[in-house]
Amino acid sequence: MHLTPVGLEHYLVVSALLFCLGVLGIVIRRNLLVMYMSLELMLNSANLALVGFSRFGNTLNGQIMVFFIITVAAAEVAVGLALIVALYRKRQSAHVEDLTSMKY
Amino acid sequence: MQATDIFFYVFAALTLLCGLMVVANPVSRNPITSAMFLVLTIISMAGLFVLLHAFFLAAVQILVYAGAVMVLFLFVIMLLDLNEEIRRRFNRFGVATGVISVAALGGLTLYTILRSGIGTGRTPQIEGATEPLGRMLFSQYLLPFEVVSLLLLVAMVGAILLSKKELK
User: Fold this and answer.
1) Where are the domains of chain A?
2) Helices in chain B by DSSP H: which ranges?
3) How does residue A1 score in pLDDT terms, banded at 50, 70 and 90?
4) Each residue of B4-63: pLDDT tens digit?
5) Which residue in B53, B72, B76 is closest to A55 by CB distance?
6) For residue A81, what is the enclosing H or E element?
7) Contact call for B5 and A6, based on CB within 8 A
């Protein structure tokens, strides 16, 4: 296997693969909590791409962006998990297949 | 090959492997296993951040994600019924179509990245230590910083309101 010196490309490939894993999790898993974790995976992959661009573009702006993304993700997780708990209390289920009242 | 390159491959492999275990663990479908593997993913990603010289972000990643966010996840998992997930069966058609579409998306993204000839970019000189980041945060990005603090307050109030016994 030929291994080139690690550059921006490598980080972007890892980020893209991780994003795809996140999408896969959203598509194939039906548990709300696991889907939410996959969402976090996707956010993290975006963070990785931003830090990579920041490093190889010689600017700190990307890292500031990642800092804000992490903060917003923390807020988002707090509200999202509170919503899931509230939903579970009403329906006794955290499965998307049981939550179809808005579908019909 | 430099030592940092070896570290990159190790951390990248760890990140992707643990990420795969989060979404499609062949042994267990327990959400707690997923959460634990998500912690491992986040920690190895902090390793990648260190390799990118983003030291502050690596620390924040471990403190906020692996610490606060994942503890929140585990608390909520323990509040809910776990055995539900194990009893259910996978919808095979849904899984197959999902894997195909995600593979197409991944192939397209990888093709774009590799074709763009982005290479290694400029020679990096940037250091993401705490001091330059703090300076930027409190000068150029002061307003967004304050707005984010407000956002955290709103999220806190929202979470408390939502988890009250009766929603009014």
Assistant:
1) 8-102
2) 3-23, 31-51, 55-60, 70-79, 83-87, 92-115, 130-139, 142-162
3) very low
4) 889 999 999 999 999 999 988 888 888 889 999 999 999 999 999 999 999 999 999 999
5) B53
6) helix A61-91
7) yes
Query: Cα–Cα–Cα angle for B135, B139, B142, nearest 5°?
Result: 115
Q: How far is B94 from chain A (nearest CA, A)?
A: 7
- Measured in whole angstroms, the distance separating CA A33 from the mean position of its chain's CA atoms is 13
C-alpha A15/C-alpha B37 separation (Å) is 17
SS3 at position A1: coil
- For residue B163, give Cα distances in angstroms to A3, A83, A86, B31, B160: 51, 8, 6, 21, 5
What distance, in Å, lies between the first and last C-alpha atoms of chain A?
53
Yes or no: say if A28 and B24 are a contact pair by the CB < 8 Å rule: yes
Give how far the C-alpha of residue A23 lies from the chain's centroid of Cα atoms, to the nearest Å. 9
CA distances from B90 to A51, B17, B34, B86, B96 (A): 36, 22, 16, 10, 10
For the segment A25-61, what is each residue's pLDDT rounded down to a tens digit?
999 888 888 999 999 999 999 999 999 988 888 888 8
* Residues constituting chain B: 168
Find which of A1, A9, A61, A83 to mutate to test the B interface (most B CBs within 10 Å of its CB): A9
SS3 state of residue A31 = strand
User: Which tokens go with A96?
Assistant: 């998307």
Chain A residue nearest residue B2, CA to CA: A5
Q: Which CATH code fits A8-102?
A: 1.10.287.3510
